[in-house]
Amino acid sequence: MKNMKSSIAVTGNAGPKIRSDCEITLELKDKGGIKINLISKVKTLYGDSIINLASEILDFYSFKNCILNVIDSGALPFVISARIEAAIKKVIHTDLDFLPEFNQKNFYSTEHDRFRFSRLYLPGNSPALMINAGLHSAYGIILDLEDSVAPEKKDEARILVRNALRQVDFYGAERMVRINQGEKGVEDLHFVVPNNVNLILIPKCESADHIKKIDDEIALINREQSDKNRVFLMPIIESALGIENSYSIARSSENIVALAIGLEDYTADLGVPRTMVGNESFYARTRLIVAARAAGIQPIDSVFSDIDDMEGLKENVHTSKALGFEGMGCIHPRQIPIINKGYAPDENEIERAKKIVLAFEKAKSDGLGVVALGSKMIDPPVVARAQKTIDLAFRLGLVSDSRADNIESEEMN
Fold first, then answer.
1. Is residue 96 part of a domain?
2. pLDDT-based confidence at residue 58 (cuts at 50, 70, 90)
3. Pairing between strand 140-144 and 66-72?
4. Are 231 and 218 spatial neighbours (Cβ–Cβ below 8 Å)?
5. What is the 3-state secondary structure (H, E, C) of 92-148?
6. Residue bearing the bigger pLDDT, 175 or 381
7. The last residue of a domain, from among 296, 328, 343
8. Count of domains for the chain
9. How many angstroms separate the CA atoms of 213 and 215, rounded?
């Protein structure tokens, strides 16, 4: 083939611990036609459909002579096709994409002020973790193309993530992708923006110019699409320079809905260890919160990296919420319920907010200029914050009405 890059390629994963994936070995030949060899525990049930899919993809790319070896570990069709396409693009130059059909459940959009209490990171080259991720009830599912993907696997991961966006049922979770840094991140956009991604996380963000470049590229991609998709942005601040520029970053695009902090890289940039107490990151976290609030967007906290310390996670969420964060990342599904419950208003907060609003309304109706609840004076900002708590509880379904004199608390999740 004139556009050949190499004669053999290997993609995907195989081994005793691998599931829902496959390993593909593609070897170009000068003659002999197409030969497909399949090893699979489900060959009796699904062997014909796997071989037919492989044949369809090879025909789509006009292959005439090759050997394709498939070692299947229970991969779904969108995974098999991604692995074969990745192998093909390692051996030939082509701009053609073999796109699986869109799952009709994935045509939903998102909103600027959507709740983002939890977002679950999933490695972009690990299909087994993607398939049922939406069942864990995270507010967002992040298919990660950056740190969790080995450099030599990034091209494969892009195709797999693209197919996952088209095929995996996210059960209403916000469909997020964390792109790579620099030019690789710009290239990533071409794989995810046309496939109804809701939000792009931008790692290691240090300037407003960084955001502008991403914004411009998304606009360019959307101009070429018949169905334009508004893509929201969440810059991740992970360095001292990024923290110092956080307000200008937060204000750099109307598509930015949240500003997140990445404490592992931030503390590494400072040259200090990350601790549970968090004194080393207190300035950065509060600086980011103030920048986000001033820009009218959501401040989002870093991940809690110890997946076995549930009590530590609860305490971290409590501190995070008290500082002003509205959510955080998570790296394991077991963290999600604690995070979701921790950022939602609890029964005591709702009850106190109700009492504050009712006391304020009663004082106004009585013509009083001074409002008190017990021994504490209440001023308008306190009332506004209390009403915001009630509104939040109402939107979460924790109370039956957004009016303080007419709400009944529902059972807390």
1. no
2. very high
3. unpaired
4. yes
5. ECCCCCCCCCCCHHHCCCCCCCCCCCEEEEEECCCHHHHCCHHHHCCCEEEEECCCC
6. 175
7. 343
8. 3
9. 5
